[in-house]
Design brief:
The chain is of the alpha/beta class. The chain is built from 20 helices and 18 strands.
């Protein structure tokens, strides 16, 4: 595998990073070589042998160094690590891992190709059903999906010891890009039919790819000035380099997909106008869930309080961290408090550290065991020096005479009985309130649906939370109009949004056949 190049966005320096030659790669090579010799000699590698192969650790930047740069934290497997990890796969005939994948990637097939060293064949198998492997390999919660169902992990009684499917997917996508082996999916002859895709997040890009492959003329309409949706405005550079997202979008353009940015559907054009005046044969709504939730406590209007949505959008999409090149306003902080326990809270906290905060605290009203964030993200945050204040929650935010944040009143909690989600409910401890000093508060409690599309589209059915209602094929209450992703699911994952996009595209292709 060639070196992985990642740009350090503080200034213009470029670091050259590679997991090739690392101690982890050297160790993997020493284990892989005799295994390959045995296979070459015709010896069968049985389940007991595969179960004895140690799980391959992901190389990462050193914790202290990475807190001061925007380069990717996880560096990716080297070739020997990837091939050794692939050799752990038992090749189950019933393929339980595939059932755990929202887009149905043929996992045992692509891993079998890695075992043979056929990396191009392996990535091509993935791209039969997933055109965003470099993204999914980095940000999808495989431990709750495909890897949760892995027979090896179940045999070893730990999902952490399952085959690292996501890391292998990432390796292949990076190998293909680094070695200039990327091929554009075949597109069928033009049908003359037109599809409008509103939103360029994972659901929209998936619909665009699958309908373009069927020969339809596809146009994507994006509200922001850059495509990618949550992948560019929400997920930080150190987890998902934006060049990777742009490469996926560029691939769609090569398939003939048209992209228009700075286009606010519902204002610039309504759904009715797309159909009646612009003569699109089908419309897909994939605008995500971009309306942030707040606490509803005193002090949320003080200077120094922001939603994680706004904070990350300024930092990621508008590059507020690049002070030499970007003029994006960003509130400068010394002590930051992030309220919440999900992946977005981890992203906001780790971004605050990289923006120069002296201390960053995560305030969460349950314990680490109940945190919805990926364990890997929590571990990375702790390694970087983020401080976690568990079993606490704010009652109010405190300000000075200039209307700026100076602290919060926090209350301590203990865990009671499980709530409807199965997590134990936090119960306030009377008289445990105390004042916590900080100058910045970031609220990371999730997002709700932006009402713009629903308010400007007559007879479009929604639930009480403003999420668009769809049937099993992602069709809305309107003819020729489909929807998917967070606008249907609420805040979910990239791969779940892609799964909805695949279903919608199949239905649209059926409609237009």
């Amino acid at each position: 595998m060639s070196n992985i190049k990642t740009k350090t966005e503080f200034g213009t320096s470029t670091e050259l990073r590679s997991s090739e030659g690392s101690p982890l790669e050297t160790e993997a090579q020493s284990l892989l070589a005799p295994l390959l010799e045995r296979k070459k000699a015709g010896e069968k590698i049985g389940p007991k042998d595969r179960m004895a192969i140690p799980p391959q650790e992901m190389p990462t930047q050193e914790a202290k160094a990475r807190g001061g740069n925007m380069s990717e934290v996880a560096l990716g497997y080297g070739e020997c690590q990837a091939r050794l990890e692939a050799e752990r796969c038992l090749g189950c005939k019933n393929e339980p891992c595939v059932k755990g994948c929202p887009v149905g990637v043929s996992i045992p097939r692509f891993i079998a190709e890695i075992q043979k060293g056929e990396f191009k064949a392996a990535i091509d198998i993935i791209k039969e059903t997933n055109l965003l492997p470099a993204v999914c390999g980095r940000v999808c919660p495989q431990e709750k999906q495909c890897q949760l169902e892995c027979t090896l992990g179940k045999s070893l009684k730990s999902v952490e010891k399952a085959v690292a499917i996501g890391r292998l997917e990432r390796y292949l996508a990076d190998w293909e890009r680094d070695n200039n082996k990327v091929t554009i999916p075949a597109v069928k002859p033009a049908t003359g039919k037109k599809v409008a895709v509103i939103g360029s997040g994972p659901a929209g890009l998936t619909v665009a790819a699958d309908t373009a492959r069927a020969g339809h003329g596809v146009s994507i309409f994006e509200a922001f000035h850059k495509p990618g949706g949550v992948m560019v405005y929400g997920i930080p550079e150190f987890r998902l380099p934006k060049a990777i997202v742009q490469a996926e979008v560029d691939g769609l353009k090569k398939m003939g997909v048209r992209l228009e940015t700075n286009f606010l559907a519902g204002r610039t054009r309504t759904i009715k106008e797309f159909l009646d005046e612009d003569h699109f044969d089908a419309v897909f709504i994939g605008v995500g869930a971009g309306l942030p939730k707040f606490l509803g406590i005193p002090g949320e209007n003080l200077v120094g309080v922001s939603s994680a949505n706004e904070y990350l959008t300024r930092a990621n999409l508008m590059k507020a961290y690049d002070t030499e090149s970007a003029a994006t306003p960003m509130y400068r902080s010394k002590i930051v408090a992030v309220i919440g326990g999900g992946n977005v809270a981890m992203d906001a906290a780790r971004m605050a550290l990289r923006l120069g905060a002296e201390q960053v605290h995560v305030i969460y009203r349950r314990t680490r065991d109940e945190m919805p964030a990926r364990a890997e993200e929590v571990e990375h945050a702790m390694e970087e020096g983020i401080i976690f204040n568990f079993l606490q929650n704010p009652n109010k935010i405190l300000g000075d005479d200039k209307g700026r944040v100076i602290g919060m009143e926090l209350q301590k909690f203990e865990l009671g009985e499980p709530d409807a989600s199965g997590r134990r409910s936090p119960v306030a401890i009377p008289g445990s309130e105390y004042v916590y000093d900080c100058d910045t508060v970031i609220v990371a409690l999730g997002n709700e649906s932006n009402p713009l599309i629903t308010k400007t589209t007559a007879n479009l059915s929604t639930d009480k939370r403003g999420r668009i209602l769809v049937d099993g094929e992602q069709k809305t209450s309107l003819d020729k109009v489909y929807a998917g992703g967070d606008i249907v699911l609420g805040a979910a994952t990239v791969i779940l949004a892609m799964g909805e996009g695949r279903r919608a595209a199949a239905a649209i292709n059926g409609l237009l056949a």
